[in-house]
């Protein structure tokens, strides 16, 4: 097994003892991304803007590892309120337009830093 740690300055730094992503045997496991702008450290307001920032963070990690959204096979979307599902889904759908990945989406009690959405991603080549 070959394991590669993925890190980019174009996505938020880990806020705990974990890596942004790990690649192993042609699979990329991206830790749950929250909507922190890596340049400013700020969190945008609203579910649409937060989902957009999360997807940009995921895209930066995919790119650093040599993957694209077409390589994504599974996403897990965590929402602070299931009422935000439709708005999150509309932004998410801009990034997956064909052969969409498998996905789970559900509401949780709280998310880190009080954000509205967190998305973890698995990609494969």
Short overview:
By secondary structure, this protein is an alpha+beta fold. The protein has two helices and six strands; from the N terminus they run βββαβαββ.
Task: Summarize this structure as a short list of keywords or feature phrases.
alpha+beta, 6 strands, about 120 residues, 60s Ribosomal Protein L30, Chain: A, 6-stranded mixed beta sheet, about 25% helix, globular, 2 helices
CATH homologous superfamily classification: RutC-like
Which geometry do the CA atoms define?
globular
- Give the SSE order as H and E letters: EEEHEHEE
Q: Mean of residue pLDDT? A: 96
Uncertain segments are none
> What is CATH's topology name?
60s Ribosomal Protein L30, Chain: A
Write the CATH architecture name: 2-Layer Sandwich
Explain this structure.
With 125 residues, the chain is of the alpha+beta class. It has a single domain, classed as 60s Ribosomal Protein L30, Chain: A (2-Layer Sandwich). 24% of the residues lie in helices and 30% in strands. The protein has helices at 47-65, 85-95, and strands spanning 3-6, 21-24, 27-33, 72-79, 102-107, 117-124. Strands 1-2-3-6-4-5 form a six-stranded mixed β-sheet, with helices on one face. Strand 2 (21-24) and strand 3 (27-33) form a beta hairpin.
Furnish the topology, listing elements before pairings.
Elements: E1 3-6, E2 21-24, E3 27-33, H1 47-65, E4 72-79, H2 85-95, E5 102-107, E6 117-124
Parallel strand pairs: 4-5
Antiparallel strand pairs: 1-2, 2-3, 3-6, 4-6
Helix pairs in contact: 1-2
């Amino acid at each position: 097994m070959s394991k590669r740690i993925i890190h980019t300055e174009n996505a938020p730094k880990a806020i705990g003892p974990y890596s942004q992503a790990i690649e192993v045997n042609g699979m990329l496991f991206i830790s749950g991304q929250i909507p922190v702008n890596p340049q400013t450290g700020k969190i945008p307001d609203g579910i649409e803007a937060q989902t957009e920032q999360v997807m940009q963070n995921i895209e930066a990690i995919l790119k650093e590892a040599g993957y694209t959204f077409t390589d994504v096979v599974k996403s897990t979307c965590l929402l602070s309120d299931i009422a935000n599902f439709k708005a999150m889904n509309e932004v998410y759908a801009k990034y997956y337009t064909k052969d969409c990945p498998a996905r789970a989406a559900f509401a949780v009690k709280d998310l880190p830093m009080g954000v509205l959405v967190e998305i973890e991603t698995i990609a494969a080549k």
